[in-house]
Records
---
Amino acid sequence: MRGLIAILIFLFVTNVFCQREASNWYFGTFAGLNFNSGTPEPLFDGQIRTAEGCEAFSDSDGNLLFYTEGNSVWNRFHEVMPNGVGLGGSFSTTQSALVVPNPVNPNIYYIFTPDDALAYKLNSPNGFNYSIVNMSLDGGRGDITTKNANLLTEGSEKVSAVLGSTGDFYWVITQFRNSFYAYRVDGTGVNSTPVVSTIGPMIDNMDNIRGALKVSPNGERIAIAHTILSPTYASSLYLFDFDTSTGIVSNPNDIGDQRVYYGVEFSSDSSKLYASGKNIETSGGGVSLNEVNIVQFDLDAANITASEYIVQRFPDEVGVEISGALQIGIDKKIYHAVPNSNLSVIRTPNLNGINCDFRLYGVDLGPRSSTYGLPPFIQSLFETIVTIENFCEGDTTTFTTDSSGDIASVNWDFGDPFSGTANFSNNLNPTHVFSRPGVYTVTIEVDFLSGPSKTFIEFVEIAEIPNVLNAVTLVQCDIDGADDGISSLNLTEAIALYANGNPDIGGLFFDNLSDAQNNINQLDPLAYENTVNGQVIYARAFENAECFTIVEIILEVQPLSDLGLYDSITVCADEEVGLALIVDVTLAWDFLKNDFPSSDEIYLFSSEEDALLELNELPLEDKVFGPFDERAFYFRIEEDNACEFIGKLDIDLVVVPDFENTVTTALCNGEIELMAPEGYDNYEWSTNVVGQQNIVVEELGQYTVTFSNSVCEFEQTFIVENSSENKIKKIDVLDFRRNNEVRINMEVEQDDVVYSIDAGNTFQSSNFFKNVQPGIYDVFVDLGCSILKETIIVGGLATFFTPNSDGFNDIWTLSNAEFFPNFNISIFDRYGKYVGGFNNAQIGWDGNLNSSPVPSDDYWYKLELEEGRTITGYFALKR
């Protein structure tokens, strides 16, 4: 019997590695993707909503089992599992959860949950924990049987996992401060005693524990991004060696020095590392972050840092705070997430430089959206041992294994039943001619001389030979004033000319035919300057980067196409905020359409360079002009994607006044003065009064005024009612805060009421007052015909005190204590130890405990008031 059990365990271990466990992703705002077909297809049934981290896990056939954002767990029916809430992860953690199966028991799964940087601000760290899912329970839907078994009392937001050297266990790895912790997970469960490697930089500021950790699919390396935000932005991207036999991390290599990094990911053959980061910019003595970059490092290079290649520059977008996760899929492509309804994708990440084939926002999520996170998985699920070449229809596709010295036997299923017996092979390095274009699932079953057998999956995309035009002409405008036929061109604009409407066609550009055929010396497609008018260059057109057609591109520069300062337009700005202005771009487009009625190809830009290179086209919506921006539009007129004219429209701005569209007011002593906004050329009232900004009326009813300036015209309505006997309903005093607030609530809301809390010295239209200092206040409400008055008390406690006997701030006390009878205050240090206190019979606290001074530090307090309120907060003691 014991022999039978050993055989069953061995059989299970030999199939522990099947890759489809990562087939289903749930992430972002109810977003999801299914990879089982080899092409990611949107899922709309997910219940997850997370700012960053998440995880999902499937069985070896690619059927969903469960998913989580680190706090709640949903089963495959998208129902919360029994006991499936309150896990120790957080939706705001970089890698909020990671699932690892028990290598022996197919029903047991471990959910590892890292810590959360925000938890430290609340003095409630989660640490590093794991919970256990038993899939045999709840009718096969799964149940949480153990929750939040603690491994570390404090931790970072990082976790990754990889198959161990013998294939019958996993390493789960996290990092905290300057140490890596590798936990062994085998058939007996989770070993709570980690292998600790104290190595790498010391990260002891809890604001900086964000950022991803990944093990390479072959288990040999670890990459880690420390997202350094405090006390200032800094770069930290490290590469280490990892030993899958011992769990030891070694050989640190700092490879990033320009960006605040967040996401990291390896290519499937472990030869390339990708990282996402926001550029650090130093100017004017300050440090700030701007555009998001995705960069590639060649791990086979002699100098890995010097091999950096910028894969993509994202524009600096408002609201994009971090650079987003990178995650490999079972299709061996790498996906990138920032808040958007699409994911970006690196289609061939094993290839160097531009050949990695980045596609911006190339994966549609339907009506769902991503945030900053994607689900991490056991990195071994993405390992590849084969190099595949030749992906064109009709080509002989070659498969070259990378571990031939360790392979005892291999069986290939090319997923191409129409090819007959050729669909199978047991050759070490076979070839196959696929029967038609499409995505094929190639299954590779490998027996190794050392270690367990493994099953690998490769999705092979056989592309049709690109159906593109063989030659096109890219026409550009000439704006340097010389009309010499020389200009800067954005070569990527040629793709739309030759692609025959196929949005998946891309292109690389070359100076001559030989370079194009050999894919060397690619031209920088942005701001390429031609040498002569009519110059011929060549494009390598492709849908799959290794299946291409050569296209001849003639670069033609249009003479006399620079219109310069074409005209100016008067624009009514929607809003003025300080020196910034918001302008409707549609007005400029309509102006140009009137002058160029036969052209629908009118494009607007913020700069002449953008117009020339067709970058950052302005959408037909509001455009914000900053205080130092040029207040002008640059336009580009085209015909059949050929540049006809480039010019400039200056903007004469008339700012829309800040006024209420409808004002309700009341007669006061039988009359009321109605006042329109000042500074306009013409006023027309519904009472037939013309030319007057203000009028006096004596009757109830509705009055309108139209006021205008040049081409801008506006209308305001006044509703005159009888004055009411309004009263103060209540005054909300939110005190004992660092920023006290007062809100005055009236019995009846009136538009023309103004409020004051400084005894009527200053009035405002808002009934809400912020940052109110502790004290006694006379509240006034001016109703127009009468003024109401009440007195309020705003309580408060000082945010710091300095008990150094200098006569200033020597006692920490309660402001206006006489108005708070029978209060009691208890004071604690940061560890919760009671250090002092006082009540209404005492003046305050002198900073001593048992007549001995306590050290300078932050202290917490609990204030108990007679009315039943309990208030907590903190203050600083400085000696």
Note: Residues 386-462 form a domain with the Immunoglobulin-like fold (CATH 2.60.40.10).
---
Amino acid sequence: MNRTLPLLFLFLLFSTCLLAQETDQPLLFDRDYSEAPLPEVLKNLQSTSQTRFFYQEDWGIDAFLVNAKQGENAIENISELLRNYGFSLIPYKGLLVIVNQEGLQAYRYEQWEEDDAQLNDYQIIGTGKPENSNLPVTLSGQIKDAGENEPLIGASIQVVDSSEGVVTDLDGNYELSLVPGKYKFLVQYAGYEPQSIPVQLINSGELDVELFNETLKLEEVTISARSQEVTVSEKIAGREILDIAVIKSLPTFMGEVDPVKSLISLPGVSSVGEGTSGFNVRGGDPGQNLVMMDGAIVYNSSHLFGFFGAFNSDLIRDVELYKGGGPANYGGRVSSVLNVNLRNGNAQKMDVQGGIGLISSRLLVEGPLKKDKTSFLLSGRTAYPNWMLKRMKDPDLYQSAAGFYDVNFKVNHNIDDNNVLSFSGYLSDDNFEFASDTAYVWKTKLGIVKWDHRFSNKFLMQTQVVASDFQSNINNTQESYDFDYRSGILNYQGKIDFSYELGRSHNLDFGISSLYYEFNNGDFTPGAENSTSEQVVIPRENALESAIYANDEFEISPRLSLVYGLRVSNYLALGGSYFKFDPNQPKTTASITDTLNFNNNEVAKSYMGIEPRASLRWLATPSSSVKLSYYRTNQYIHLISNTAAISPVNYWKSSGYNLSPSIADQYTLGFFKNWKDNLFEISLEGYYKDIQNVVDYKNAANILLNETLDADLIQGVGRAYGAEFLIRKNRGKLTGWVGYTFSRSLRKFDESLFEEEKINGGSFYPANYDKPHDLSVVMNYKLSRRFAMNLNFAYSTGRPITVPVSKFQYEDILSVLNYSDRNQYRVPDYHRLDLSFTLQSGLKKEKFIDGEWVFSIYNVYGRRNPFSVYFTQRGNAFQLSVLGSAFPSISYNFKL
């Protein structure tokens, strides 16, 4: 290598003032190139821009051939070409230097020896001298919150005066590939004080960084903790991540932040109204969503009929939603995947935080069991609305009672640098007693053991074992009609996930999982005073669902990336009794021809699912992208319901001899654009989804305590399609977004030869949750450093209902109603405005209590939004509004 290289580099430094001109615009090719020599391309670029390239002719780069299209990013294309031949493209201000890596290494290494006096200012990574000065080394580490010891997702680490840089993943980890040398890194995260870190990189090593919260937040209100470019650069279509800062900025109901309800403000996500548990994604029903907490399945995602979320906001790190199948490591539902990730306890110091409200309160304690080694986290919540119910005028209400509590705990232990073990648990209990005679109870018990192991910086493993038990009970104490009804689902799950980095932009994930179910489809036990009813026990159902998967994520080129995977699932229905029906008759109790009985753990029915999926992202420009995806998913368990939302009488049922698994194919196409330095972002996505074997019930069917339920269930096809639009402002005093969704969700049941097993004559009809138009407006206005106002407005088309269209009446004795086709009418449209005001404590950096007051008004103008319309036997209509007036609340959140 020519030793004049350092002189060339110094010349460039001194020439900066004459030649350099910084620009935010990328350098693009102004023509097509096919097998063009690199020097020719560089001369053309210099003639049409202010960029200058420096190199020596005897390096032989005229043998490097360029293939490019007009409008492509020239720097990315040339850099990729040079890397293939051991060369680098080094940017400096407005200049660009082509330099052989060996020469650069030698030059930088000589610098270290000349600047020994300054080495005390640098953090040294690696020892001795570079193992091979011709090859890059790896710098990796984790970026965390210095106070909470929590990983920061989407934090950026950038090489100053260079295009080299990355953002952290969901665990706060990053990895950079750099040649040995001296660097200055800038580490940044929204709402935190940036750090400038000088590093002398000799060999591969680790650099962990802790960031502190900014003392004052003068202007910026964080909408997303992830890098704001991530909407454009995200490789997986239909993925949404809300961090806790976003969730807490939304207006609350009764002072409680609900991460699940916050998703409803996003396009493609909706609910059927107040007082409903669950949510709907892209035309799916609530039972088609896979809801998880730290990777463990949760069957009840809310408290008190949906008014409170099941997840304590103080525990949440972020909420991750896939509006489709997601990567291949997820499966089992045909609509969406929601994973609520909880943070670890503070491993450095004790912390106490919580909130006190009119209806509910919460408390969290966390700290180290052994500093920087073992941490714990313990939280609890409880609700006490009874004092408010007692003041209601309606006797049915003031004689009622309600409440809930939940408890979370987590212990995280760092065994060594390569092994982390965690234990966590969740316990919840809901109760609602209506008019002093009927009590509804929901209980969840959840336990998780997780082991993370690092074989190397590029090869990771996570092992997880989960036990989950969900029970739903109804107790009636009415004299002569007392009873106890129970249903639920119990499961045990084990899974092992591996992640291997094949290259700088190439990651492979693979793993295996197995999930054992025990279904309780209903037990009815009459009380001691009930002499008119008999005990009914619906036989238990057991099943085993297993899967293996592989998921590959890589960049085909700087502009084109692909995430594709394959999941192979197997479902075994174990034991139980199944009816055989006469194929020449409609399925009824009268057409049962035989009963098949299977021993415990004997395979009664087996299903196999092949589930491919792929997501393609093309960067049209550095600030815009187009994404295309396809997902196929299988769902082997079904939520049996005759209501539009999850209720106490709903229960889960296994696929088996007469009930097939649902299969969905979803296609999406989206365009994403950021502009004005990521101040604004806009997205437009369209989707189409076909579902096979959706489950519904016959007209006049009985789904509760029905020993021959298979005779009343039918399966057909579903179709959902729509378009989602979002525009968001990320910075400034006013932040927020506007989202609009047009969608349709239709079903058709016409495969049977018998009219009794068809709905609406075999034509497509709207599903219970079909809402063509859905609009949400979310705004956050920072009035001052301490005072902020939040607004949420929601509008949607009224949901479908079935109504009587005529009646036959004989005097005042007999009245027979004649109903319309199913879901042919709609309740009135829904709209609601919520406001909240947040007053933070003083701006002193050191204070004993860091607190905030939150004042909120739910349903500001008192809209009586109809949840449903009911009809008496004589055809009189009554509209049910769960909340028909404005609902103010106040709460105080604190942190010691």
Note: The first helix runs from residue 5 to 14.
---
Amino acid sequence: MIHETDLPRWQAKIDQIGAAAASDEDVTAGWAKDEVERGARNAELRAIVDAFLGDGDLSALRQSVDEWRQRPGAAFDGSGQTWLNQVARHTPDGDTEVVRALQDAVRTPRSIAESVQKIDTLAQVTEQLTPRGGPQVGRIPFVLSAFWSADDSDPAWPVMWSSAPQMMYELGWLRTWSNRDRWPQYVEAARDLCPGQVTRFEHLMTYLAEHKFVGLSPHLASVCAEAADLMASYTRGTGYADDSTAARAESLAYQLRGELGLAANGLVSDLNTRLGRQLRAQPVDARIEFSKTGAFRADAYTIWAESDGDRVPSLRLWVTRSGVAIGVHAYGENRSDEAAIAARVASKLPEGMTFFQLQPHLSGDRLVPVDGYQSGQVFAGRWWPWDEVPHGLELRDTVLDTTEALIPVFDVVSARPESPAIRENAAVDDLAALAQRFRTDRPYPNDKDAWHKDERARFAEMLSPDNLVVFDLDLFRMLINGTRYGGPGPQSVLNTSLSSMNSIALDEFARNIHEILWGAEPVATRIDRALDWEDLGTRGLGESVLMKMFAIVDPDRFLPAFPLTGPRGKIAMLRRLGLPEPDLGLTRGEQHVAANDTLRGRLEPLFPEDPWGQAQFAYWLLENDVEDPGPEIDLLGRAASELFLPESFLKEIEELILEKGQVVFYGPPGTGKTYVADKFAAAIQPDPDRRMLVQFHPSMSYEDFFEGYRPRTDEAGQMSYELRRGPLALMAAKAEAAPGQPHVLIIDELNRANLPRVFGELLYLLEYRRKWVRTAYRADEPFELPANLYIIGTMNTADRSIAMIDAALRRRFHFVPFVPHEGPLSNVLRRWLKANGEPAWVASLVDGVNDELRGLLRGTHLLIGHSHFMVAGAGPEKASVLDDKRLRRIWDYGIYPMIEDQLYGKPEKLSDFTWEAVLRRYGPGSAPAAEEQEAVDAELGSDDA
């Protein structure tokens, strides 16, 4: 049911669309004419239905409907006729099951529930009729609704034209992509929003599909306000107060996204004409961050930019609970860079326009008009409180006039150099608020933090002046090699030096450590002496180990942040906090001490007497975007377009991976599993350093995948062993360091390895994130899989059936099938062929051969994937790449050998799959090719067909 609060809002939107349509006399005249003609057509269609109910003649039904639909006002299009043609052509003579099912289906149902039952029954009996798995079931709601709408029933049934539910989806009123699931919601909306005039609802949705922008919804302010109120119950890391609140917040966010998405697409052409630009409209995601418990937006905006980058300057139409803004938006590299941008903007800003201060997402009201630039992202333009916002189509001219006036501002912002990926020198305005966010997001402190602090105390006792007299080499190795109280990095050289020492040398080493840590000289001097091999130093004893020891024995002064330089060094932390760096004229020891003291002085008030918390916060700042701009671009939508897949399919995968943390894509070779995994991973995490792909093979081991000891030879040729991290341990460390960022590990060919052997005790962690286990090589050190590390496996069913996967492992993954011409993959090849101007019959050839292989091989594990034919170099403005020579080569050297292997010893069957044989059955001039072209001409079916 439509939410009671949404009903008046949606009704106002319907009225707004109607007002826009009423301003076009040609449109309203066309609708009036259509109503008259449709009345006559309905009586004719009911006569056709009555005849079919009497004689059950499918061929006659098909022919009668085909003739009828050519008449003016007939509610039936080419895709519906194609479905009916397929049913009639492929129903075997004497097959009464299909006839009875269709006869029952065309009888007008008495309720929505009964209509759904009729759709499901008809889908079950028709989906296996043709070589490609049956007439496309996604067209059934349209076909049946056309018959039902002709009946003079009360309440009336609307026709489910493809544009109507699609526009409901774009408006955010629908969240499903299957026509079967959309149908009941579509009927309810048509009846509730246009009572007694369901055909008007059809017309209005069709009009909106052609004229995306009709103004902003009159009730958009109340949508923002309700969403902001719900956000008040949101807690970072936990989510909303309950599931119903989260669901409502999601619904409102998608309605906001839908309104502004229609504005972005509906105005971009007019903007480009008026401004003489080539702007692109870019959608904005509904969540403010990629997380299962992430908050949903309580504001929305368009993005019109000259490129697809996620931090490029843009023109924006922005709505909040307080009002509407049109302006120029730009990111800065850091605080000083943003101030410089703002100064350039101020010099060009037209009279009557203003800067806006961007508030945090969780404030619920993002924009505050201010007299002058203050800080943060730069956004400047014109502001209207809601009671002053132009109504309906009047807003179009306002947007065009305002953006034209802002072009000098946009030009001065767009001309600046691109910002590098890493923002150095970033100052933090409200460090206390960020510290609180760190405590929530990470979260801090947890049990593992307590363990680190306990280990510090243990090491401090070992390094005390008294205990250094009896040096504990084993415990010292744990200090330098592990991650207890921070990891100093690989220490193979120091390990080699220690291994070569006899008891006398070890005593000397212990005395030097005593002098370094407890000597009378200044700390900086002792550090410099320790770095000198001819003084207190030892080969391999570097800065990180030295600073870790000082952090252990003197926690009141030193942070467990060990390197001085590098991306995770103390200087990087100083830059991130906007603090002065040590003078390069100082010695190395003096620089370490100066950097440490400056950091400690700034962080101590935030984490009193907690050096571990201070260092963890500083590392968190380095790894996370603390200004929280939110994901600006709908990267999943862009990936779906590139992959020729429904965006809703990628959204479903997103929900699955957020739910369990790991998914498996399984299916025959050539179905794009790895390619989709890679594109999906890039969509949820654009930073390539936070993504990794590893391929399993039969000899893959736990040591290869997670961690294990590996030999290493030092400069002197001496061999030692060091504990080396594998892909999973590396990605886990990165994810733990940046808890606010998703990290993705793709495991290609998952089922080629002995999975219980490779995963070992990690199998437990796949299900219980944030739990600890003791691993094989670090039995005394807890290890956990961070919740923000997501795993995508791909599994080729031609190599091993998924049934052979260990049951315990299988229940820890969601399994997503990649089967040719089924579900979301059903039209990938067709879409690609159409988009690139390649021959349509190739799709029907692949479907036909796959249907034969399904029967011969008793399953889908070795069907032909679409990627064999999606070759590089294709394009709508280029000559066809899939010419006869290329197609033969693909078949003879890529597909036929696979079929030959499966049909070994069956030459009589194998001969049916040579290129010449399949070309005769399915190539140009064949019945399937003609049917394929007919479907293309009638327009490609719906996404879920």
Note: The chain has five domains: 6-205, 223-421, 433-623, 635-817, 823-937.
